Fold this protein.
Amino acid sequence: MSGRMQKRIAALLCAVFCVLGAACAETGTLRGERPDGPAWATLKVVSETPVRYATEFSITQYENGYELIEIPATGKLLLVPEGQGKPAGLSEDISVLYRPIDRIYLAATSTMDFFRALDGIGAIRLSGTKADGWTILEAREAMERGDMLFAGKYSAPDYELILSERCDLAIESTMIYHSPAISEKLIDYGVPVLIERSSYEEDPLGRMEWIKVYGAILGKEDEAAALFNAEADAVEAIGAQPKTGKTVAFFYITGTGAVNVRKSGDYVVRMIETAGGSYAFSDLSSGSALSTVNMTMESFYIGAKDADVLIYNSAIDGEIYTLDELIDKNPLLKDFRAVQSGDVWCTGKNLFQAPMGLGKLIGDFYEVLSGTERTELTYLHKLNGGN
């Protein structure tokens, strides 16, 4: 048999498997037959989850334990209590998730931290990131033990594995919009898709408040509310402190020598301002949806030469540890006030995967700006070689 023929047979078998898996998901036989649910029109609203900062989601509780998550830009998901059925007359634009939801395919990397905080990583059976791609220790260890399996990245999921593992929810970032056929196929196969939008929250506390969405999915609403409220209260206390008057430039240098900086409306800028600082490029904005912009070193020199504090963003370029490493990127940096005073800091590379750490990062910013920094901060380290 030729290699081409083998591939065609394998593709056909996979297609048949997926169709059968979709049929099982539709009839409910993956988790056992389910009873008929109540009429959707008769279910009364019991309460709504309080939302303090987020604008991209809402959660409504109905009688009999039903719960509706609405993400206006991406869709609605109804959480059905264990042992209950899909309500009759449910609108077609509402996807149904049957509890317990404990075999999730997670392709939205930054979301793992919410599950970690809720002690819910065990609900993630399939990952869109390989073990060595996780900076979250618990996720990496789960993959090394085999408790969590790699099921292909968001743009190339392993449908056969996803269906064989009886996946009950796929969590995607908005990157899936670049491959819309992927989410459509998952839904066709009977796997509900949640496209999360925490990164679209303008307020950093709004991003953190998405823990309430995953608390609802895990049935840990009270824990999620307690975790968020503790972080929000701490950040609000910092925001109530007097402004330091210090200016801050947050940046990294690209491979082409340009300087990437945040626009004035970005959430990192809000964090700096909450911590009592003033952003060096506060007038930098545009109609583009992007939150960052590249500029020449000459333009960066004009805007940030006299900034009191420089913070190097390691998320893309990697961490640096000395002022010499920074100056090697461009000799002009040695003329900057912050370099000469030694007030230069770098973020930790794990920041992107730690949205629940934004409150602690604001605390780090505050301690740096107020001059009361601890020996070791959580997400910032000082570059060696300064005064």
Q: What stands out?
A: The mean pLDDT is 89. The chain has two domains: 13-231, 243-382.
